[in-house]
Amino acid sequence: MRKKAVLDWVKAIVIAVVIVFVIQNFFFANYVVHGQSMLPTIHDGNRVIVNKIDYDLSKPERFELIVFHYSESEDFIKRVIGLPGDSLHYENDVLYINGEPMKEPYLKPFKEQLVSGKLTQDFTLKEKTGKKVVPKGKVFVLGDNRRRSYDSRYFGFVSMDDIVGKVDLRYWPISAFEVY
Fold it and tell me: What are the C-alpha distances in Å from 134 to residues 42, 59, 72, 94, 159?
């Protein structure tokens, strides 16, 4: 009787480990944020959960936070600004997408702290990427800390194939817990 109880516990633990492995590798991932490019939204050392299956069922939406493979050894977290077919430019610290001014409330804390100058320098998509619109299968991303973000203004478009997933929540530090 005792041997059967131990065997049942071992089976339950193995099944639980397999379930956690499958969920972590195929559905959700835990990421630790490195750097300050997403300030004030996400801070260095914050921990986030990334939904890896959402974009198998749908496409990224404008202003969502995503994690993507920047290189074979490095992933970045940025905000989706331009979607396929979008034209965009910045002028006088205002984002224009397809000619329409966009509100970016997540930038308000930095804009309020500005003593001089702009948070985001003027640019056009063509000037930064050589393209007038975001190509099919790509997105244009920016960090919220525009003065200190290495983003699509420098490395170009992000392929949809390189997107790991959408940031669903920040769970660490607990005091900054937030669902996106």
Answer: 26, 14, 23, 19, 11
CB 1 within 8 A of CB 45: no
List, by residue number, the catalytic residues.
37, 78
Single-letter residue type at 31: Y
pTM over cut 0.90: no
Please provide the average confidence, as pLDDT, over all residues in the chain.
Answer: 88
| DSSP states along the chain | -HHHHHHHHHHHHHHHHHHHHHIIIIIEEEEE--SSTTTTTS-TT-EEEEESSHHHHS---TT-EEEEESSSS-EEEEEEEE-TT--EEEETTEEEETTEEE--GGGHHHHHH-SSS-SS--EEHHHHHS-SSPPTTEEEEE-SSGGG--SHHHH--EEGGGEEEEEEEEEESGGG-EE-
